[in-house]
């Protein structure tokens, strides 16, 4: 039995089995606390990067965040808490047991493949943040943005190749100094700003709690919030690093969920208080707000300090994404032979470096779009939508698998049972499906380009990443691509 298959109803036995497997691999067990995992999850889900997108709507951003939280974030947190406390191995094992192994591979592939577009959009935000310190005009310079994406990504690959411990520490530090502290500072400055009698740039009366209805296009921004909330289940692949997964993983998920909501809503409101929506940049909006507040309070020297912190948070989030989905893809590929041996090779720290490098080459090519397309905000938006579309495939499979597992394995030991699981899964499934449909409608944030070109790009990205490539791997799969389970133990516990 591999470490991924340890039953979770015997926490002591699970810990002993994992420790013995790691000892056989020649490394010491490396436990992490449930608070650390919550910080890792929050770091991979929440950041100030999405705040400008919702700040455009002023007070309505509260509704735009709470709506997807109820129909998507809450179902995701509850369902993944039950699945992770009963079945180790992450989303692959959940979908494989609930539906089928090929669909399990598709789920973990989509979880991994969405990062191909996620990294460029995330690092474009890093580039714009750095630009605000050097020269704000660089925030809209595609060549500059492409260079930053490439340099920061490959630096992240080098850090990730050193193992999970390094990633966990940096992700936790990045969350604190780059998200929690700046986010709290932004909110405090905003409250003081309003308290001194300054008018809010966006109306804050109850009549503006709901966004103005302008047709289907007015729903498109909500789709981006699905992307903002995605990733709550991603760090389930690290559940075997907890000493008592059945109890600690659900606690970790709920702490992360509360932190995510606070990080998203309050800073978005603060930005809307000081920057008019017509002047907000999707990539540089956070720094616009900080700059405005700092200039008002005559502490402009804080701008570069905050910029460094914001960049640290984004890089920390990127590191958790590098470590999570690629590791999950590696583990199931070694068990079932889904990837060729070259992509399954490990470095001396037990890290899937060849997968990261291959992904980096594709990310580098995508970064060139920022250099070739004049409107950086349009590229950022398109990549965000493609990322969401691909990832939603995984969520559709996860919700369907959870219902099947409750039906087919009702007595399987679970450390946590989600209430009204079927209802929760139906809500999550329907909302995810609707989000995919709405994602094909261009938002007003898409800079006036051809509607059909937009639909073609999004549909092409979805088909290529969500259907063609995983289908090709399944068709090319060979028995010789499977590797011994002993190697999985080394991967699972032997990172440095």
Give an account of the 3D structure:
- By secondary structure, this protein is mostly helical.
- The protein has one domain: Amino acid/polyamine transporter I.
- It contains 19 helices and no strands.
- Helix 2 crosses helix 9 and helix 9 packs parallel to helix 11.
- It is globular.
- The two termini are 23 Å apart.
- The N terminus and C terminus are likely disordered.
Short description:
70% of the residues lie in helices and 0% in strands. The chain is mainly α.
Summary keywords:
single chain; about 500 residues; mainly alpha; Amino acid/polyamine transporter I; 19 helices; about 70% helix; globular; disordered N terminus; disordered C terminus
Secondary-structure topology with pairs:
Elements: H1 11-24, H2 34-45, H3 51-55, H4 60-86, H5 90-98, H6 101-113, H7 115-134, H8 142-160, H9 164-195, H10 220-229, H11 245-274, H12 285-296, H13 303-336, H14 341-344, H15 353-372, H16 376-408, H17 421-438, H18 451-476, H19 485-493
Helix pairs in contact: 1-19, 2-9, 2-11, 2-13, 4-10, 4-11, 4-16, 4-17, 5-6, 5-16, 6-13, 6-16, 6-18, 7-8, 7-13, 7-15, 7-16, 8-13, 8-15, 9-11, 9-13, 10-16, 10-17, 11-12, 13-19, 16-17, 16-18
> Count of DSSP helices?
19
Helicity range: 55-70%
Structural class of the secondary elements?
A: mainly alpha
CATH superfamily: Amino acid/polyamine transporter I
Q: What is the percentage of strand-forming residues?
A: under 5%
What is the CATH top level name?
Mainly Alpha
Low-confidence stretches: 1-28, 486-496
- Kindly state the mean pLDDT as a whole number? 77
């Amino acid at each position: 039995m591999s470490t991924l298959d340890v039953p979770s109803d015997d926490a002591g036995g699970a810990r002993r089995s994992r420790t013995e497997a790691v000892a056989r691999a020649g490394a010491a067990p490396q436990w992490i606390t449930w608070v650390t995992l919550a910080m890792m999850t929050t770091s991979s889900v929440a950041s100030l990067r999405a705040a400008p997108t919702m700040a455009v709507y002023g007070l309505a951003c509260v509704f735009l965040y709470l709506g997807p939280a109820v129909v998507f974030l809450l179902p995701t947190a509850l369902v993944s808490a039950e699945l992770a406390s009963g079945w180790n191995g992450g989303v692959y094992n959940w979908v494989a047991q609930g539906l089928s192994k090929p669909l399990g591979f598709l789920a973990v592939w989509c979880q991994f493949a969405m990062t191909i577009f996620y990294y460029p959009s995330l690092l474009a935000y890093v580039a714009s943040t750095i630009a605000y310190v050097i020269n704000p005009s660089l925030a809209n310079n595609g060549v500059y943005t492409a260079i930053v994406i490439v340099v920061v990504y490959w630096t992240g690959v080098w850090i990730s190749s050193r193992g999970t411990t390094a990633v966990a520490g940096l992700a936790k530090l990045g969350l604190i100094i780059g998200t929690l502290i700046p986010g709290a500072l932004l909110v405090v400055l905003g409250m003081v700003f309003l308290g001194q009698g300054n008018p809010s740039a966006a109306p804050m009366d109850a009549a503006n709690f709901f966004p103005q209805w302008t047709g289907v296009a007015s729903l498109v921004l909500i789709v981006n919030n699905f992307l903002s909330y995605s990733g709550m289940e991603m760090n389930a692949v690290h559940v075997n690093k907890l000493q008592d997964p059945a109890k600690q993983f659900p606690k970790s998920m709920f702490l992360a969920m509360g932190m995510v909501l606070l990080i998203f809503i309050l800073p978005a409101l603060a930005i809307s208080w000081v920057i008019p929506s017509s002047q907000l940049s999707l990539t540089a909006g956070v720094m616009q707000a900080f700059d405005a507040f700092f200039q008002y309070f005559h502490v402009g020297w804080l701008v570069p300090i905050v910029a460094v912190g914001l960049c640290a948070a984004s890089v920390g989030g990127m590191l958790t994404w590098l470590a999570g989905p690629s590791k999950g893809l590696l583990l199931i590929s070694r068990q079932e032979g889904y990837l060729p041996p070259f992509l399954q090779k490990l470095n001396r720290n037990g890290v899937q470096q060849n997968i990261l490098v291959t992904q980096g080459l594709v990310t580098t090519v995508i970064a060139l779009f920022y250099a070739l397309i004049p409107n950086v905000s349009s590229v950022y938006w398109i990549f965000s939508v493609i990322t969401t579309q691909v990832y939603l495939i995984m969520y559709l499979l996860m919700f369907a698998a959870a219902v099947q597992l409750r039906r087919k394995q009702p007595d399987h030991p679970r450390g946590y049972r989600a209430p009204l699981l079927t209802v929760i899964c139906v809500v999550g499934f329907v909302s995810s499906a609707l989000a995919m449909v709405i994602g094909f409608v261009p938002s007003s944030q898409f800079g006036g380009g051809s509607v059909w070109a937009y639909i073609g790009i999004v549909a092409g990205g979805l088909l290529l990443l969500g259907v063609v490539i995983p289908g090709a791997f399944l068709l090319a799969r060979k028995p010789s691509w499977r590797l011994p389970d002993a190697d999985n133990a080394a991967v699972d516990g032997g990172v440095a």
